[in-house]
Amino acid sequence: MNTTIQTMLGHRSIRQFTDDAISAEQLKAIVAAGIAASSSSMIQATSIIRITDPEKRTALAHLAGDQAYVKQAAEFLVFCIDYQRHYSISAEIKPEYTELALIGAIDSGIMAQNCLLAAESMGLGGVYIGGLRNNPREVDALLNLPPYSAILFGMCLGVPAQDPQQKPRLPMDMILHENEYQPLNTRRLAEYDQQTINYYQQRSTHNKQQDWSSAVTATLSKESRPFIAEYFHSKGLMEK
């Protein structure tokens, strides 16, 4: 197994950081790794906004659900769908199509993961901040986003000040299907649920009695940001 795969398999979300800075050279390499990621038809529909203003960091931490690490991390990056750049080139483009929003979201996710892996390969850590979508219009206004661009998520980066246990993932045979979709293997699910119960009971902080099935049921059975579609429509995206 090579070091790249070892870095990937060792991933953990980091939410506590030291006061150490990320050097300019490190940040440049991290962003360059992101830019090098795959892009559908070379459309390159992502922009990254680096937040260095302390007041904006504080505001974003609050808008993301009072997540203090947004303010404390050495770097905070916001990833956005961006078709304003393309529209500035030609008014003939059609950013209102949902397919283009999907391309922008997929490309942004790939770019962000490249950034995070690059950071982790340097001994840094990070965590994604989807909570920015709790208040998308307020975040959008704070970052002065133009039409045909929209916020997706943020990313904290810094030197880890914690060493959390790694959360167990679904077993590969529940995710990897061959030739056609396979029905849920309830026996394997029960085994995985027990594994997650054991994890939550044994981890060093925030112990709880919960399995994966009940956790995702609680998450997915409630209202989930019903205002998101309207937000994207207001930016000229996902109208068709």
TrEMBL record:
Name of the protein described by the UniProt record: NADPH-flavin oxidoreductase
Limits of the Nitroreductase domain: 10-158
Pfam families xref list: Nitroreductase
Taxonomic lineage: Bacteria, Pseudomonadati, Pseudomonadota, Gammaproteobacteria, Vibrionales
NCBIfam families listed in its UniProt record: PRK10765.1
EC number: 1.6.99.-
Record has ATP-binding as a keyword: no
Enzyme's top EC category: oxidoreductase
Keywords: Flavoprotein, FMN, NADP, Oxidoreductase
Organism: Photobacterium toruni
Entry's family note: Belongs to the flavin oxidoreductase frp family.
Keyword Transmembrane: no
Gene: frp
Gene3D superfamilies noted in UniProt: NADH Oxidase (3.40.109.10)
One GO molecular-function entry: oxidoreductase activity
